[in-house]
Amino acid sequence: MTFRKIAALVAIITAWAGTGHSQELSFGTLSTTQVQSWMSSDIGTAWSLGFRGKGATITVIDDFNSQNYLVGTLSGGWTSGTHGTMTYLQSALVAPDAAFRIRDFRDTRSVALAKGFNVINLSYGMFADTGYDVSNIRWGAREGSVINHARAGNALVVKAAGNDSVAVGAATIFGDQDYLASALIGTRSAIFVGALNRNGTAEAPASMAWYSNTAGQDVRVQNQFLTVGVDSSAMNLAGTSFAAPIISGYGAILHSKFRSATPTQIANRLLSTARTDTIMNYDPSVYGRGEASLSWSLAPATIN
Amino acid sequence: MRWTSMTLASACGRRIGAGLLASLILAGPAFAELSLEVTHLIGLSLGTDLSSIPKSVRDDGYELSDGAGVSFEDWYRDRIPNLQIDFITELTPDFGILWGIGSGEYGDKYQIDPSLRLGFLYTRTIGDNGVLSMRLTTRIGGRLRERSCVADYGDIGGVQAVNCRLAATPLEPSESLNYLWNEKPGDRLAASIGLTFHF
């Protein structure tokens, strides 16, 4: 196993650590607008018309302070940074004109929303032994606020599906369970994002990445589950942690067209326009609604 | 009068050309002995300089939200092409009035308005073998106009008027209407001077 793959595996494991210390910073926009090899071709088309997520605020809750560094090729050359640095960078590359807020794990305060359209990117999980009733969990201020935002439809909440090759909300082989995922099931504006092994096309359909969690038998999860390509050979990173930021960026771009749309409408639009023809042997219990399509989500249903 | 080849050049303002044209036509004594002898057909063509704009997008298209394909071919094909007919009417051996009509071009989502072309041609012999010619024309009408589409974006955007070509872009539907074609013909005012020597 190469160093890069080791680093990627460490990234997958540490993505679920949920530890860190608080620091909240606000960033402006990222000026880079070069289509990267791991991106869907839809992204370049959106950019070519000048639409890069302006008007949206994406809050990335992640590790920004630990000493666990990842190494990837998100923007052409090699980039090294914490898990949060990479997920922030990735979503900023998809939606360069969005405003960003980063929230380190150490900061457990409630997540306040910015004025306008908000996206909250969750490339992490909250694990505990399986068997608890999720409705009885007393959440901390941060997760509690995020769950409430998803329930109320105040923000588009994008949750990485997980890397345990199980259904969302199910117990892992370690006997634990991602209760944050469980708490988001059935909420108005939360989307779970699984990872395909690459971007699919109708001519060359993609498959689920071996590690990615699936939608499972719960129809509620299937209805709020999307997939996107996480091309490890292109970005030298792996994990559904790097699927969620793509959808976060899509949400920001979609909002730049439908400025009066609510987060729930944006979520539903992304879900309802997902493609199944770009997936090998599509099954809703695996792929949920299918592969996210930015171009289809921007297009009308009919026109004359 | 000999019809000579010439090269079109850019002209100044439309109003200057129209005024000049009007003054020449209405000038009195110089044309006291007009002889309206013969009108000749000098041009017959299809299309206009603006026809290339809708033609350039015919091969484009996009997919709707369910993947159904939309081709621009039907929308921007010229169902009725513009027919341009030009004449010259000799007033004197050296001077003639140019006039012509364009029938207009019509497609499903655009039209090029009918037009009237007016002008004059003046020639003068230079030496034994040379001819100096001056031509000035103006075109009235002939504007390219694009029609909008009605698109249904469902729950997220409802039914809206939109630029047909830009309906699937990230551009807001209302903003896309600002990009509907509304182009004036390129030959609103055209002037040329030619010098021909035969040897």
Question: What can you tell me about this protein's structure?
Answer:
The complex is a heterodimer of chains A (304) and B (199). By secondary structure, chain A is α/β, with parallel strands linked by helices. Chain A is 30% helix and 19% strand. Chain A has a single domain (3-298), classed as Peptidase S8/S53 domain (Rossmann fold). Chain A has eleven helices and twelve strands. In chain A, the strands form three sheets. In chain A, strands 1-5-2-6-8-10-11 form a seven-stranded mixed β-sheet, with helices on both faces. In chain A, strands 3-4 form a two-stranded antiparallel ribbon. Chain A has a two-stranded antiparallel sheet with strand order 7-9. In chain A, strand 10 (190-196), helix 6 and strand 11 form a beta-alpha-beta unit. The termini of chain A are far apart. Chain B has one domain (14-197). Chain B starts with 13 loop residues before the first helix and ends with a strand. Residues 1-14 and 23-35 of chain B have low confidence and may be disordered. Helix content of chain B is 14%, strand content 42%. In chain B, strand 11 and strand 12 (159-162) form a beta hairpin. Chain B has helices at residues 14-26, 52-57, 73-76, 173-176; strands at 39-46, 61-63, 69-71, 83-92, 95-102, 105-106, 110-112, 115-126, 130-141, 144-146, 149-152, 159-162, 182-183, 189-197. The A-B interface holds A 45-46, 49, 51, 253-254, 256-259, 261, 265-266, 268-269, 272-273, 275, 277, 295-304 and B 62-67, 70, 149-157, 162, 164, 167-173.
Oligomerization state of this entry?
Answer: heterodimer
Sheet of most strands of chain B: 6 strands, antiparallel
If strands are numbered along the chain, what order do they take across the biggest sheet of chain B?
A: 1-4-5-8-9-14
* Biggest pleated-sheet summary of chain A: 7 strands, mixed
Structural class of chain B: mainly beta
Strand content of chain B: 35-45%
Q: Name the pair of protein chains with the most residues at their interface, and give those residue counts.
A: A-B, 29 and 25 residues
Average predicted confidence as pLDDT of chain A: 87
Beta-strand portion of chain A reads 15-25%
Cα Rg of chain A: 17 Å
Average pLDDT number of chain B: 85
Gyration radius of chain B, in Å = 23 Å
Described by the principal axes of the CA atoms, the overall outline of chain A is: globular
The outline of chain B comes out as: elongated
